[in-house]
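Ops channel
N.P.: pipeline sanity check, posting one input/output pair.
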């Protein structure tokens, strides 16, 4: 096998780069295989507010590996910071176990450090092969496993599908469904002056919800309006819905949802959420209302994941945390600080993380 060299990708490489991605995805059966086309790649890596850094490995026959770094504005220790999310990496099968992955990661880390990036994070599969390499070879630290929370909406369908109980499972689910629904109904319904609105644009009314929900978190993305528009309204075929709880025209809480097939089940995924200061109960009322509406529309399960104190309150609307041993794809948050060392980055309670913070869905 011939050698390779690692360099930064430019526009002339983009077509070959996407071809390399397609080949790796087909071989590995990656979750984005059916949807990751040119439009999605360009949205993710060329249309973000800050330019991405993309490393490629090149051998005599062409590109043999790729590694992307998305740059974001973040908050760290209460101050503006520059962060980078490492994602979408792969090596052609003929070049694996030859140091390609390690060389690309080292190259990206040096480039990001030279450009003043303060911290780097990513979400490798806890059961995958890449996690030990990041920790051992590149001095990343495991911050936490990302907790996953589910809310059963149609218990009969879940029992019939996952326990192979068929019709008896549906009958058992029908008998137990009132108990499951009672857990969700511990949160009151909407108050008389409240209504749920579907937003097709994001403006200044949204900013207090995002700002207040992030307050007190030492590490997290700067969820400004520009970022949220890009993430949810501009993503090709995103299928996202932005819902807000309004009270006399004033927004007090929001959630972003999308339908998805997870755990072999029709789900509603809560991609992002937030509320104004003191409106935690309003956020739970909004979540309860959306769960009930999605159940009527045929969703079997509500799903979300992340790090924020409010996730601990989701039991009041019927969510339970999935034990890691039952999670088919557990994710770890790992991080590295490039400018100085401090304990906050590696404290899970300091982070604000939702599915909006990475490209899983």
């Amino acid at each position: 096998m011939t050698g390779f060299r690692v360099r930064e990708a430019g526009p002339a490489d983009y077509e070959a780069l996407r071809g390399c991605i397609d080949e790796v995805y087909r071989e590995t059966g990656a979750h984005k295989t059916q949807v990751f086309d040119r439009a999605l790649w360009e949205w993710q890596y060329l249309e973000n507010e800050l330019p991405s850094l993309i490393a490629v490995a090149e051998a005599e026959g062409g590109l043999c590996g790729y590694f992307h770094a998305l740059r974001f504005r973040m908050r760290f220790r209460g101050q503006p910071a520059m962060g980078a999310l490492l994602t979408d990496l792969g090596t052609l099968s003929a070049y694996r176990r030859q140091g390609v992955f390690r060389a690309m990661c080292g190259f990206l880390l040096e480039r990001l450090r030279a450009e003043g990036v303060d911290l780097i994070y990513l979400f490798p599969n806890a059961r995958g092969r890449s996690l030990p390499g990041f920790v051992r070879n590149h001095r990343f630290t495991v911050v936490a496993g990302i907790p996953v929370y589910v809310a059963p909406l149609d218990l009969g369908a879940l029992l019939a599908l996952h326990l192979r109980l068929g019709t008896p499972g549906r009958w058992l689910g029908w008998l137990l469904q009132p108990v499951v629904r009672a857990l969700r109904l511990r949160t009151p319904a909407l108050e008389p002056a409240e209504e749920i609105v579907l937003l097709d644009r994001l403006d200044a009314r949204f900013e207090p919800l995002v700002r207040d929900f992030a307050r007190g978190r030492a590490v997290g993305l700067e969820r400004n309006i520009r970022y949220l528009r890009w993430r949810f309204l501009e993503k090709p075929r995103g299928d996202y819905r932005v819902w807000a709880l309004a009270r006399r025209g004033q927004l007090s809480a929001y959630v972003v949802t999308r339908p998805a097939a997870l755990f072999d089940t029709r789900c509603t995924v809560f991609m992002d959420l937030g509320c104004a200061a003191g409106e935690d109960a309003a956020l739970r009322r909004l979540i309860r209302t959306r769960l009930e509406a999605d159940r009527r529309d045929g969703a079997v399960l509500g799903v979300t994941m992340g790090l924020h104190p409010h996730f601990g309150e989701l039991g009041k609307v019927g969510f339970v945390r999935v034990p890691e041993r039952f999670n088919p794809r557990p994710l770890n948050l790992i991080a590295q600080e490039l400018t100085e060392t401090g304990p906050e980055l590696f404290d899970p309670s300091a982070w604000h993380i939702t599915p909006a913070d990475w490209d899983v869905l």
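N.P.: looks fine end to end. The chain has two domains: 4-145, 148-329.
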